[in-house]
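User: Predict the complex with zinc ion.
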Amino acid sequence: MRKFIDLHLHLDGSVPVATIKKLISEHHYPIPSDEKLRQELSVDSNCKSLDQFLEKFALPNKLMQTRHDIKTIVYDLLVELKEQGLVYAEIRFAPQLHTKKRLTQENVIKAAIEGLNQFLIDQKQENSNQPELHAGLILCLMRFANNQKENMETVELAKKFLNHGVVGLDLAGAEGPIPNIKYKQFFDRAQELGIPYTIHAGEAAGPDSIRQALEMGAKRIGHGIRCTEDKKLTQELIDRQIILECCATSNMNTKAFDQIDSYPIKKLLHKGMKVTLNSDDMTVSNTNLPREYKLLEEKTNLTSEEETTLYLNAVDAAFTSPDEKIRLRALIQK
Ligand SMILES: [Zn+2]
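Assistant: Here is the predicted structure with zinc ion placed in the model:
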């Protein structure tokens, strides 16, 4: 079985459809038809922008407001990822989006860790030959206008749960209206606290947003694919061995790119860029990591050698321990 690593996977955009249905029925909400549900959760080829793409998160977020629901979603997602052949995943979510009922950010994080730990316990008892799936949680800050308090709370909680389920921080939300640099103070604090982080940039916004993420100390960039619009920046990313967390289908959906055939991951790889391939939002984009690899094999002639490099780049970039990296490198060499 092929082995995969996903470093860029949003929990709310990747809730398994079966889990959505299960939670809708537990809450006694009206159950929509499969067709209606698909329209509500996934984009089609008419998706025009990142903003339209983000509309698909409304229903999942409605179902992510209790401890039980969040735990269930994390657990079910991990089961699905293991079935796909993942051996390591970093799953990200913004705790502040899940406090609409009674939960505090801290309880949201605890619920996600409970789901993760339950999965790890059950996996140990499974007795299968398949390599284990290990995972960590990345907490997202949100690019909103008036949420300084909530963002700083997320940073402090990341420190509290660091290495106990949480592995890092991120900055997410609609790119463009407010530039990344406005959020620098939170990442200065993360640096002080020794929390690793990645920042979304160069997806809906152009090269400037990537430059700002670098200025904020990011060693990993969520997407970053629009660096191709700026030669000098591309070279700087290569020289500094900055990791790009590329997500092909998602970039097609949000129109960051419009032709999968010319998706530049191969080109960047051959220039020496530390690129990785990830799924972003499995349910919203109707994809998963094995499908992303297959798509690039078919459309860009991605070779198995190049795939190994993508895997090893992901190992280097993972927010995890040296021992876990040794395990992951050994898995691909088998
Ligand atoms: Zn993302």
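The longest strand covers residues 134-142.
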